[in-house]
Amino acid sequence: MVVSQVQDIGEDALLQVLRDRLYVPVVSDILDAMGYLDQAMSADLRPLEPQMRVIGRAHTALTADIYERLEEPYRLEIEAIDALKPGDVMVACTNGSQRTCFWGELLSTAATARGATGCIIDGHTRDALRIVEMGFPLFCTGFRPVDSSYRSTVVDYNVPVMVGGVLVHPGDIIFGDFDGIVSIPKALLPEVVERALAKVESEDQSRDMLREGALLRDVYDRFGVL
């Protein structure tokens, strides 16, 4: 696919281009160049293993800490998971809770069965090694063995959430790899992909010239990328 064809393809095909040809830093650079300087999530959100990548549409959940077990502690949590659609990424806001553990193996299993492509949570997971064995892409801030039902509850889902310092709306495009995570506003996806492909082409040519011994100054002056 050439860059000029990007504007003519649908969202699913654009997501495939992200998956096959792009990487998070170049997309972050393009968002910066377009004036969207706050789309990269904080550095404490890390994948369970370096090879994990997550690409898909944001399906959001908002949780709050509690200090007693509710009568139906998992009601909205179950609704939120069951509402996942193929190609969704669960993006869960715990407001950085240190008390609770929102995610685990069973939620990963249920999300996989619904066709979800991963999970981003600004909090803790458990069953981490089992999730790694499943190959389910999960980015989180840490690990705790505790159950959520005495510690937090989902208060809403499919609403805007702040995760890793980024305001994420349902349907925004989530793209994460070992370098970090960016959220691409849905309406910007065609232009972001088009411009990112062009930048990758320039980076490839810059890399070739640098390997041949060209000065970095000369290469930058020619292609304008670093």
Question: Measured on Cα atoms, how large is the radius of gyration?
Answer: 19 Å
The backbone outline, from C-alpha atoms, is elongated
Please bin the fraction of helical residues: 25-40%
Order of helices and strands: HHEEHEHEEHEEEEEEEHH
Low-confidence stretches: none
- The CATH class of the domain at 40-184 is identified as Alpha Beta
Distance between the termini: 24 Å
CATH architectural designation of the domain at 40-184: 3-Layer(bba) Sandwich
Structural class: alpha/beta
SS element count, helices: 7
CATH homologous superfamily label of the domain at 40-184: Ribonuclease E inhibitor RraA/RraA-like
The major sheet is characterized as: 8 strands, mixed
Features:
two-stranded parallel ribbon, elongated, single chain, Glucose Oxidase, domain 1, 8-stranded mixed β-sheet, alpha/beta, about 230 residues
Model description:
The chain is of the alpha/beta class and 226 residues long. The protein has a domain at 40-184: 3-Layer(bba) Sandwich (Glucose Oxidase, domain 1), CATH 3.50.30. The protein has seven helices and twelve strands. Strands 1, 2, 3, 4, 6, 8, 11 and 12 form an eight-stranded mixed β-sheet that branches. A two-stranded parallel sheet has the order 5-7. It has a two-stranded antiparallel ribbon with strand order 9-10. A hairpin with a 2-residue loop joins strand 11 and strand 12. Helix 1 (11-21) packs parallel to helix 6 (189-211) and helix 2 (24-33) packs across helix 6. The radius of gyration is 19 Å and the shape is elongated.
